[in-house]
Amino acid sequence: MNLQGKHALITDGGSGIGLAIAQKLAAQGAQVTITGRRKSVLQAAAGKGIFPAEMDVTDEAAQKEVIANAVKHRGPIQICVANAGIAEGRALQKTQMELWRKIIATNLDGAFITIREAMSSMTSTDWGRVIAISSIAGLRGLKGGGAYAASKHGVIGLIRSYAAEHLGGPITFNAICPGYVQTPIIDQNLEAIQKRGFTQEQALEMMVSANPHKRLIEVDEIAETALWLCNSASGSVNGQAIEISGG
Ligand code: NDP
């Protein structure tokens, strides 16, 4: 695969799944703009072909400015990976509006703004890939995680709608739906479960056993799927929600 010179944008590209995708795309020659809120994390991830930019996905004005600036420096975006997301579980009666709004603003509003702003330059090119990182919680209910599941179902709705809107054009839209993946988000989940009185081993077991193949998924397994979607032979894969959950 040759992505030489193609400009990729990845939100939350400094850690976890986003970083793994950034490294794979850069290794194929892409110029990758990675965004996130923490400068230190972004700087640690920066390297050959990987360019950091601070950006909060809940801030529409910041997304407009940062994405326009990236386009100015590296040309029109051709690969957009709307990856930034937060995972916080809370049962229905314990979900206050503040938490609901934070999850929707980050996971759904954030992805919508990223895709819209990236598309304003992508439509000037003759090839493009929009990839959103949803979740298995975008495909089915998540006990104790209604807000997260609603946000991730929403992301799939966006992808399917934009695929329909651009049918026959040079840009495809797909969602990747992982099960539990070994990333810093998982470490945060471990801490949250332990606060509910479980040991670290019990907390880990809960997440591992939620994946049908009884192991955490590696970030590379998700990144390889993103890379495959960027293959020239994947142009007929469009509007899909691709589950990577172990079964
Ligand atoms: P990370 O482990 O990288 O952690 C989440 C990151 O999101 C944080 O590093 C944080 O970076 C960033 N973030 C949070 N809020 C904002 C914001 N407002 N603006 C910009 N960045 C923000 O994440 P993962 O790699 O685990 O997850 C990536 C995506 O994959 C998410 O959408 C997640 O929902 C999804 N996913 C993950 C699964 C998993 O098991 N790990 C399973 C299924 C889906 P910073 O503080 O620097 O901004």
Please, could you describe this protein's structure?
With 247 residues, this protein is of the alpha/beta class. Helix content is 46%, strand content 16%. The protein contains 8 helices and 7 strands. The chain has helices spanning 16-27, 39-45, 60-74, 97-122, 146-165, 184-195, 200-210, 219-229; strands spanning 7-11, 31-36, 50-54, 77-82, 128-133, 171-178, 241-244. It has a 7-stranded parallel β-sheet, with helices on both faces. α4 (97-122) links the parallel β4 and β5. α4 runs parallel beside α5. The longest helix has 26 residues, at 97-122. It starts with 6 loop residues before the first strand and ends with a strand. The protein binds NADPH dihydro-nicotinamide-adenine-dinucleotide phosphate. NADPH dihydro-nicotinamide-adenine-dinucleotide phosphate is lined by residues 12, 14-18, 36-38, 41, 56-58, 83-87, 106, 133, 135, 178, 180-181, 183-186.
Describe the secondary structure blueprint for this structure:
Blueprint: E1 7-11, H1 16-27, E2 31-36, H2 39-45, E3 50-54, H3 60-74, E4 77-82, H4 97-122, E5 128-133, H5 146-165, E6 171-178, H6 184-195, H7 200-210, H8 219-229, E7 241-244
Parallel strand pairs: 1-2, 1-4, 2-3, 4-5, 5-6, 6-7
Helix pairs in contact: 1-8, 3-4, 4-5, 6-7
This protein binds NADPH dihydro-nicotinamide-adenine-dinucleotide phosphate (NDP).
Residues 12, 14-18, 36-38, 41, 56-58, 83-87, 106, 133, 135, 178, 180-181, 183-186 line the site of NADPH dihydro-nicotinamide-adenine-dinucleotide phosphate (NDP).
